[in-house]
Amino acid sequence: MSETIHTTVDAKGLSCPMPIVKTAQAVKGVPAGELIEILATDPGSVKDFAAWTRSTGNAIVEQSEDAGVYRFVIKRA
Amino acid sequence: MATETTAPEAAAEAELTEAIAAAAQPDSGSTTVQRQLVIINWSGEYDKIMPTLIMGSVAAASGYKAQVFLTFWGLLPFVKDSRRITGDNWMQKMLSFMQRPGISHLKMSQMNFLGMGPWMIGKLSKQYNVASPKELLEACQLMGVEFLPCQMTMDMFGLKREDMIDGLGEPVGAATVLELMTEERTASLFI
């Protein structure tokens, strides 16, 4: 499944809570059903994004890590 | 033996399927009560404001209703940075002289080292990309965290509406906060 990414959030180098806060802000501008990509280096963000998507009803469709950079693709509910 | 269901049965089945589908949906909050975080922010130091602003901004970012009650020392960081001396009588003015108000002028609750503490934390924050209290406050305001000042503290410290930063809610008291804390699906913190 490689639909195009609507928005990318670059949260590399940012610590809690900024990856979540920046994503929440960016998601407001994303229409329902579209994909948003987040890049983060904070290891704590892995569990945080899982919790955040559960709380907000959005869904993680892809998750990967490459050389310390975590990549999440989230589908806007 | 008929293989088709009768009309009322089909309708009941459809309703049941719909109910199961609705229950399986992640909690989007539209038909259920919104979750809420209430923080009683009593402390005014750098290291204590951080959890208030972090929990508040993340709660709002996660779709919770986030409300922060600013009381006692916890009200002083929400005075405008530009207001140096506040209050009407000499005691209130001396208070603001000794405890400089404003989010950019916070002391540490421990290891303040006459001001070296906040400076060092500032350096560490920059190095590890941790947001400053000012940045976190902006994030809170962007995410819609509500800040409720304590009327009693404002009176006692001689703080007026004009002394405070923009965007704060109407001053309230303990009864309002108590009611919020005991609503459904609400978590409360005293910081």
Explained architecture:
The complex is a heterodimer of chains A (77) and B (191). Chain A is globular. Chain A has one domain: TusA-like domain (Translation Initiation Factor IF3). Chain A is built from two helices and four strands, in the order βαβαββ. Chain A is 30% helix and 36% strand. Chain A is an alpha+beta fold and 77 residues long. Chain B has one domain: DsrEFH-like (Hypothetical Protein Ychn, Chain: A). Chain B is 42% helix and 11% strand. A four-stranded parallel beta sheet of chain B has the order 3-2-1-4, sandwiched between helices. Chains A and B meet through helix 1 and helix 2 of A and helix 2 and helix 5 of B.
What are the SSEs and their pairings?
The complex is a heterodimer of chains A (77) and B (191).
Chain A (H helix, E strand, L loop, with lengths): L4 E7 L6 H11 L6 E6 L4 H12 L2 E8 L2 E7 L2
Chain B lengths: L6 H18 L11 E6 L4 H16 L3 E6 L19 H9 L17 H12 L5 H11 L2 E4 L1 H7 L16 H8 L4 E5 L1
Helix pairs in contact in B: 2-5
Mean pLDDT of chain A: 91
- Anisotropy-based shape of chain A: globular
Query: What would you call the structural class of chain A?
Result: alpha+beta
CATH class of chain A: Alpha Beta
Work out the radius of gyration of chain A: 11 Å
Can you give keywords for this protein?
heterodimer, A: 77 residues, alpha+beta, Translation Initiation Factor IF3, four-stranded mixed β-sheet, 4 strands, 36% strand, globular, B: 191 residues, alpha/beta, Hypothetical Protein Ychn, Chain: A, four-stranded parallel β-sheet
Question: What's the short story on this structure?
Answer:
The complex is a heterodimer of chains A (77) and B (191). Chain A has 2 helices and 4 strands. Chain A is α+β, with helices and mostly antiparallel strands.
